[in-house]
Automatic annotation (TrEMBL):
This is Calcium-responsive transcription factor-like. It comes from the Eukaryota. Residues 268-367 form the ZSWIM1/3 RNaseH-like domain. Pfam families: ALS2CR8, ZSWIM1-3_RNaseH-like. InterPro entries: CaRF, ZSWIM1-3_RNaseH-like. It comes from Hydra vulgaris. PANTHER family: PHD-TYPE DOMAIN-CONTAINING PROTEIN.
Amino acid sequence: MEKELKELTKKNHKVFFEDKELSYSGVPFIISSQSTLDCQQGKDRNVKVKAEYREKKNDEAAKDHSCRKHKNIVQITKKFDCPAKVHIKEILEFPEFKLDRDSEWLRKDTSKKLRLALTGNKNMIVSRKYVLIIPDISVHRNHLIGDAAGLIQPISDELIIKIGEQVKVGVNTVTEMRRHLENFVRINFSSRSMPNKSNKRFFPLDETIRNHMLKARKKFCHSLIDQECLNIKVAEWAKNYKEAFIKFRPKGENNSEDNNQDLQKSLLFIFQDKWQRRLLVRYGNELSFLDATYQTTRYALPLFFLVVKTNVDHQIVAIFVCENETTEAIKEALTFIKKWNPSFQPKYFMTDYSNEEISSLESVFPGKNFCYKRYFI
């Protein structure tokens, strides 16, 4: 809200000597800026944007294999058209131009001199003040007020900082974190001004604390970019599982042997350990399963499992993640698995009723005696 004096001189501001919020003191002033803040439960000024966003999300959810998480939202908005508003004014006073006596002619003459001084960039004594107009509590409508209003308050910024500090020193449970936060609140408030326990700004819910602990942990990750974190994990897995086959191509890196430009720059991750290769060769040459899972991760990426039936149960013998569920992307991943297991030649494959999966399997594993079991889930 604050502005430099040079910026103010670019506009022809009106000079005041009094205002409905400020009584006459003889000192001229200008209103450099002003702002109006609605109540949190005030008028919803983004109705159209929210409606377009909900329509977009509903269209995405209607598509096949949607990864959107469904939440039961009882109240879609916290806005209740409360008329209460807070008005803020920033004024600049110029005490050097103070009037000795009040008259209309002196006001006009002093205003003229002040404008000339502002345009001439003269060094002047400037006093910056703020006028804050807060409505009476009775102005609020259609929502809770008083102590009951604390139930819908967001968590304090000071508590968010405190959570980050405690996570950094090793606090990893909600119960322990709540004890530290309550002690922090007691230190910062006297016994008379201690907020009510129902005030969620200073006594947040367990879920709120847990969410902010998770956000704090993410800040201490190797990187905020998940691909970089996965790259570090791949290097760690390659060190710990030396006999495992791992293929990781981050999005944007052009290191694919395929001529498809989109495929060359798309994300690909494949993992297969030694014991998985052994089970694949032993049990997979008769019947194998290829299954794509959805809504199992927070990413809108298909996760594929290659599964075989052993003499005990079903086991995952390879996994891969590709950016897009296309025939070319699935075919590329299966080609790597086939290259890692030259003796893997299944007679039958069971898969979802997906044309992309079926086409890729037919391309990678051709053969006269090869057939599929197609089914709906």
